[in-house]
Amino acid sequence: MSSADLDQTAKSILIENDQGGYTVPTKGLYPYQWNWDSVFVALGFATFDQDRAWREIEMLFEGQWRDGMVPHILFRKDDPSYFPGPSVWGTDGGPIPSSGHSQPPVAATVISDLVDSDTSGKALGRAAALFPSLMNWHRWFLAYRDPEAKGAMSVIHPWESGRDNLPDWDDALRAVVVKDIGPYERKDTSHVDPAMRPHKEDYDRYLSIMAACRNVGWDPAEVARTCPFFVADPGVTFIFLRASRDLLTLAEKLGKDAEADEIKGWINRMETGVKSLWHDGLKAHVALDRRSGKHTDGISSMSFLAPYAGIADQETLESLQGHFDRIAEKVRYLMPSYDPEHTSYEPLRYWRGPVWAMVNYMIARGFAEVGDSARAERLRNDTASLVEASGFAEYFSPETAAGAGGGTFSWTAAIWLTWASPTHVEQAA
């Protein structure tokens, strides 16, 4: 299929997954509005319909909780094809039934991008309308995912990280006591090969964490204090730090001086705190279990987001470039979601090895911004090759390019349109 044909297919996927102002990740497997999916999808819409791009994000923020959280799923309808649905979550924090935790806060970065690429003259006004909500969401993260002000964001559930079965969560999950869950029927494995999804023992613990949070009424302070799973995540930390820098840019454009000063304080806190995630032995930022005090022992794709977050000191950058080149010798396509030399690596099981287009996009952006155009271009070329080989899959084997998970996937299509497509590269030249 030619690049032009793939461009058209990608547009068609976004249009077909559009549910009237918000987009599902893919029909069947994910029938609701997902947080960071929607934000990346907005980038794809912006390549051909800027108004629709803004609407995607505006509809996401319609579900913001009273305490400032933007949930990871908005249940705009009750679809029995998905588990766990709204009745299992048992939340009452906002105007739309939702899950009880958040997801990586990429919104401020994408909104800043939409302002920069605007051709309508309306973008800054739409950003201004969203700005208070963005501030409240970032404040929520600082209050309830870094309650001791250590400068690294924790997640209270693997799903909050956006990377459900990442090996980094294995030890912390094993410490979760399976309780307060009744019989249940997963729906994901009826849509996708179980070999590409988390194991049942993972799901038992996922639901046990939900039950523990439900038992304290999803009170964010109590959740942070008592949740059996509380792990500082380099992915959410780096994405939050980058988003805060972009939120600062928006504040300055909007003349929000007090908010700009507040955000500068957040950035200083995170720049200092992220050092706690550095693993001297691995020479990379890794997860840190706040309950046990132990670092994880593997390098995930999110470790490579340090430059994206503005953390590009000589030691960090040279270490990441070395890991990049080492991993490039082990797999055909970059960037696997987990180090292929780690014993927990699995090339087709969700977040234990596969390549994800939107992660490649963020990693490449960081490398490009520090002047490493060669590695940035390698990631773009690999992403394009994966789509050309296997279409707009949810994720891909780093070894064979086989597509896996859901098909006709919205954010894969969006990343193609906004970054990976050769057509986009030619237009940007």
Describe the overall structure:
- The protein has 429 residues and is mostly helical.
- It has one domain: Glycosyltransferase (Alpha/alpha barrel).
- 48% of the residues lie in helices and 4% in strands.
- The protein has 17 helices and 9 strands.
- Strands 3-4-7 form a 3-stranded antiparallel beta sheet. It has a two-stranded antiparallel sheet with strand order 1-2. Strands 5-6 form a two-stranded antiparallel ribbon.
- A hairpin with a 6-residue loop joins β8 (395-396) and β9 (403-404).
- The longest helix has 22 residues, at 123-144.
- The radius of gyration is 20 Å and the shape is globular.
What is this structure's SSE topology?
Blueprint: H1 3-17, E1 33-34, H2 35-46, H3 50-61, E2 73-74, H4 86-89, H5 107-116, H6 123-144, E3 154-155, H7 170-174, H8 188-191, H9 200-215, H10 220-226, E4 231-232, H11 234-253, H12 257-273, E5 278-279, E6 284-285, E7 288-289, H13 314-328, H14 357-369, H15 373-390, E8 395-396, E9 403-404, H16 410-420, H17 422-428
Antiparallel strand pairs: 1-2, 3-4, 4-7, 5-6, 8-9
Q: Spans with pLDDT under 50 lasting ≥5 residues?
A: none
Strand content bin: under 5%
Mean pLDDT: 94
Q: What is the share of helical residues?
A: 40-55%
CATH class: Mainly Alpha
CATH architecture: Alpha/alpha barrel
Strand numbers in spatial order across the main sheet = 3-4-7
